[in-house]
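G.,

No rush on this.
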Amino acid sequence: MAPTAPVPLSAAGTAAAPSAVKILIAGGFGVGKTTLVGSVSEVAPLRTEEYLTRASVGVDDLSGVDSKDTTTVALDFGRITVSPDLVVYLFGTPGQERFWFMWNDLVNGALGGVVIADTRRLDTSFASIDFFESRGIPFVVAINCFHGHNTRTPDEIRAALDLDPQVPMLLGDVRDRGFGRDLLLALVDHLMDLSAARPAPLG
């Protein structure tokens, strides 16, 4: 039998609770937030999807996602255990403008974020990018290429989104667990780079 990793103990000798990291998954309506959380979560993700009804006609913009028949009305939630002492919690935001008020609650305690964009509808990602930038929350950008579909070059996308050169941007399919892993690793590397670049406190 293979040896198991030691479990951290608290000062009282009991198993210590793992540290928790919160990451927000944001983006426009129908860009793949729910799909990304589901592809990387180690547990069945919590979803709050409801069917689109006639009440949403004229309210939700279905341009480019005409076949979509459900929508996230609160949040998506997933979990990844990195090690016995570190757990990552993923919170997917609702994409429609009428649910944006929930972002202010979901962002509390977030260490960083992932913004998902669709090259066919890049304008739907502007609000998410502005949201993270205005709050000083580091983020990476995922260009979701369903079935390899992409209409622009990386340089064109970065210019269209007006991204800071330091913001990592990856292209791939959010249904691919490997791509989701790469996104989260890129975010961790970005956070570490920003931390290393901060000036040391005086004193």
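When you get to it, here's the other one too:
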Amino acid sequence: MAYKTFDTYERNDSKLVKGLLIGAAVGAAIAMLDRPTRQTVKRKTLDVKDQTVTIAKNVRENPQSLAGGVKETFQSASSAVSDVMDDIKQLMSTMEEVKNTSIEAMQQVRGASSELVKIGSKLKDAGQDVKEHGKDVVGEVSDTDANTAPSYSDLQNKPHVVTPNEGSY
């Protein structure tokens, strides 16, 4: 890969700047063909000239006011930059707290989910135990009832009358 030298960049930038200046000049010339545009440019140019003359007059008469104004502007800008830096530091601190809180919350969620898995496993085991124990109980009841209860065929062949003691539990 060939690297460009500083001279190459300078020549390319030079062509670009020349092209921009020529394009701006042509655009300005075309814009000046319009009478309202010419009048606006003339008026604005005179306004800028008047403002420049006024500023130059004020600086000649009182150079300290310009220095004081520049100093005040610089101090104001410096204060604004300092305030912005403080705000950025506060924002970064808040973002760090949010990040740490999020990490802690994720760890708690992971811990809770593993606890839920353990609880679910215990519930499953308890359900299996109940199911197995229920089968045993049903089997025991079935065996007991088979010995004492009349069969279907017995009921079908003989009418059954319920006595007062037999119907209560």
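The chain has a mean pLDDT of 78. Residues 163 and 169 are 12 Å apart (CA to CA).

Enjoy the weekend,
O.
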